[in-house]
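Whiteboard transcription, Tuesday session. T.W. wrote the structure tokens on the left side:
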């Protein structure tokens, strides 16, 4: 009994180390980057109005969190990003499924979507502001447009790459079209759908920041733009760091959901084996 508990404790410790060790690599890279940044500022005597030292950026972050001045900007950017991301992702999957399943719909709609994607979203910004106002609605629309197309294309390609032999086998058993879509095509396309979701995280943030650059009274994009006017470089860098952290958190969340939901993928099985020590 004691031996079994000891073995279980050792196994749990090894499993915990396997989860922690992958985090050490990016943290090491981040530490080296900060060290090089600090050495460059000190060694080349770069003035603060061109490149602030890391300590000034961390101080700006600390003061912003303590006095509460950063929270409204973070909340505004998160609200715009999440709302537009969810709306754009849902529309992308729905229209992608519809286009992949209907050649008629593809002939009528796909050229229009290609033309919309080819149009720079910054050029549409003033029109969106006129139509939807200067509040959060215009930023949500811009985020929706920006993150829609990559997921839309991935959904269409993933569905059309479903195994034709498996589809023919299911049809031989009189499987309905909806059954094929739900149980064959969508699972086959799930990997590409999640790849599009990961791309959409970064694009959604870009759309939110561009919208805040055009017109806003709060948000991290507005904070960066207003700080550039006052030449507060540490605040600008603090806003950039926060955007990077939000993007990283969003991308890692999507990857975590992919590992948990797409359990049938070979890569997910290998990751599960490493996490559990091969048990």
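and on the right, the sequence the group agreed on:
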């Amino acid at each position: 009994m004691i031996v079994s508990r000891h073995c279980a404790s050792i196994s749990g410790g090894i499993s915990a180390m396997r989860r922690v060790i992958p985090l050490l690599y990016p943290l090491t890279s981040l530490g080296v980057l900060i060290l090089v940044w600090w050495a460059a500022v000190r060694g080349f005597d770069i003035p603060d109005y061109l490149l602030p030292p890391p300590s000034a950026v961390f101080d700006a972050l600390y003061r912003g969190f303590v006095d509460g001045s950063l929270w409204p900007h973070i909340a505004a950017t998160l609200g715009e990003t999440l709302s537009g991301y969810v709306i754009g992702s849902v529309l992308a999957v729905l229209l992608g499924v519809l286009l992949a399943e209907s050649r008629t719909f593809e002939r009528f709609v796909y050229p229009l979507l290609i033309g919309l994607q080819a149009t720079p979203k910054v050029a549409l910004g003033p029109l969106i502001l006129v139509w939807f106002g200067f509040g959060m609605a215009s930023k949500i629309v811009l985020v929706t447009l920006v993150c829609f197309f990559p997921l839309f294309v991935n959904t269409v390609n993933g569905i059309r790459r479903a195994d034709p032999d498996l589809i023919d086998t299911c049809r031989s058993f009189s499987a309905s079209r909806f059954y094929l879509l739900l149980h064959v095509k969508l699972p086959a396309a799930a990997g590409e759908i999640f790849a599009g979701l990961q791309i959409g995280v970064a694009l959604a943030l870009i759309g939110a920041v561009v919208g805040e650059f055009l017109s806003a009274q709060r948000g991290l994009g507005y904070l960066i733009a207003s700080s550039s006017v006052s030449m507060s470089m540490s605040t600008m860098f603090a806003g950039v760091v926060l955007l990077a952290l939000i993007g990283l958190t969003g991308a890692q969340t999507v990857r975590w959901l992919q590992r948990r939901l797409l359990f049938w993928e070979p890569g997910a099985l290998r990751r599960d084996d490493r996490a559990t020590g091969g048990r």
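Someone added at the bottom: The longest helix spans residues 2-43.
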